[in-house]
Write a structure and sequence with these properties.
single chain; mainly beta; Immunoglobulin-like; five-stranded antiparallel sheet; three-stranded antiparallel sheet; 0% helix
């Protein structure tokens, strides 16, 4: 099923939570999920593939986001902020949300790859 939703992500480097000497680079990412369909949907679970600059991959599976399994009414949006830590200055994230419509249709909503990067680390 290809349900009409839009997922937008903005990432930000967190200087104060990072420690480059220990290879710890912290980022937050703000996600906006917009339901462009004609019925409400619920976000059930998430899957993230986090790739660092060494091509090491971490996979994260979990119920909901930030402790919630939000309902998103038709024409509405849901936004949240979360965080990730890398061992390198640059990396990326991508994945999907498992969703269900009010009528019981399950579908995966893909999240396009987005970059996590220390400012000036990518030219």
């Amino acid at each position: 099923m290809n349900y009409p939703i839009t997922i937008e992500v903005i990432s930000e480097f967190l200087t104060e939570q990072s420690d480059p000497r220990r290879q710890r680079f912290a980022f937050n990412y703000q996600v906006k999920i917009t339901n462009n369909g004609d019925e409400s949907i619920q976000l059930l679970s998430r899957y993230w593939q986090i790739t660092d600059g060494n091509n090491s991959i971490k996979e994260v599976h979990g119920s909901g986001v930030i402790g919630l399994q939000p309902y998103i009414a038709a024409g509405e949006s849901f936004e949240y902020i979360s965080a990730a830590t890398l061992d390198t200055e640059v990396g990326s994230m991508q994945g999907y949300y498992q969703m269900i419509t009010d009528s019981g249709q399950c579908f995966d909503a893909p999240i396009s790859a987005f970059q996590l990067a220390v400012p000036m680390a990518v030219h």
